[in-house]
Amino acid sequence: MVRRRVGVMGGTFDPIHHGHLVAASEVAARFELDEVLFVPTGRPWQKEGVGKHVTNSEHRYLMTVVATASNPRFTVSRVDIERSGPTYTIDTLRDLRKQRPEDELFFITGADALEQIMTWKDVEELTSLAHFVGVTRPGHELRDMGLKDVRLLEVPAMAISSTDCRDRVEAGDPVWYLVPDGVVQYINKYQLYRGEHTPLGVTSS
Ligand SMILES: Nc1ncnc2c1ncn2[C@@H]1O[C@H](COP(=O)(O)OP(=O)(O)OP(=O)(O)O)[C@@H](O)[C@H]1O
Ligand SMILES: O=C(O)c1ccc[n+]([C@@H]2O[C@H](COP(=O)([O-])O)[C@@H](O)[C@H]2O)c1
């Protein structure tokens, strides 16, 4: 049986933007992936803290579904948002390995996330569960940081961040073309990032 090659694009996606999508698409092309699974975080422990707010996971999940819907190779997993407690990639990869024991996994991370990777939980074990692919990101140097199994890839430079998208919405500036059209419409529909509570009939996580 031929093993399927599956990219795993983990992220908070608050909101998902074209930097994420271009990176995933480029890794898929270069590494001949059959699928890229986008995995929105449940509780991103390194993004929590005093004065920091992460949008509830159902909104982030749904924006990710909207953004990836037109690409037949892109799929979205609820594995992290359905696990309670802080989100650790070691748990993501263990759960995905159980769900897909035959697949070869490629965990995709931008240069900024890769810079921090030695602080991640059980980092030594991560590379026994997946290959790691570090991609370039404007403003960050791409270095392998000593991970055992990591490949580095230059991707088209997209100087976009979720922080900037949130700030722009809050300031009333456009995010058209920074995020997919459907994500702009989703943000407007639920009035996200305007400093107000945005209910979806779910508890926030
Ligand atoms: N413009 C980009 N180019 C390449 N990789 C990116 C880009 N934006 C994010 N990534 C990578 O995508 C993954 C998920 O990123 P995340 O959802 O935290 O977005 P972000 O834009 O970094 O968010 P924030 O501004 O809220 O910190 C990380 O591995 C990150 O390095
Ligand atoms: O495992 C960890 O300790 C860990 C610490 C920080 C980030 N991560 C993962 O890295 C991915 C990008 O995270 P973020 O916070 O940059 O959106 C996402 O899948 C996170 O779960 C994982």
TrEMBL record:
Keyword Nucleotide-binding: yes
Catalytic activity: nicotinate beta-D-ribonucleotide + ATP + H(+) = deamido-NAD(+) + diphosphate
Database matches in InterPro entries: Cyt_trans-like, NadD/NMNAT, Rossmann-like_a/b/a_fold
Family: Belongs to the NadD family.
Pfam families linked to this entry: CTP_transf_like
Protein name stated in the entry: Probable nicotinate-nucleotide adenylyltransferase
Functional summary from the UniProt entry: Catalyzes the reversible adenylation of nicotinate mononucleotide (NaMN) to nicotinic acid adenine dinucleotide (NaAD).
Alphabetized GO MF terms: ATP binding; nicotinate-nucleotide adenylyltransferase activity
Record key words, sorted: ATP-binding, NAD, Nucleotide-binding, Nucleotidyltransferase, Pyridine nucleotide biosynthesis, Transferase
Underlying gene: nadD
Catalytic EC class: transferase
Pathway(s) it belongs to: Cofactor biosynthesis; NAD(+) biosynthesis; deamido-NAD(+) from nicotinate D-ribonucleotide: step 1/1
HAMAP family hit by this protein: NaMN_adenylyltr
Domain Cytidyltransferase-like: start-end pairs: 8-168
Documented EC number(s): 2.7.7.18
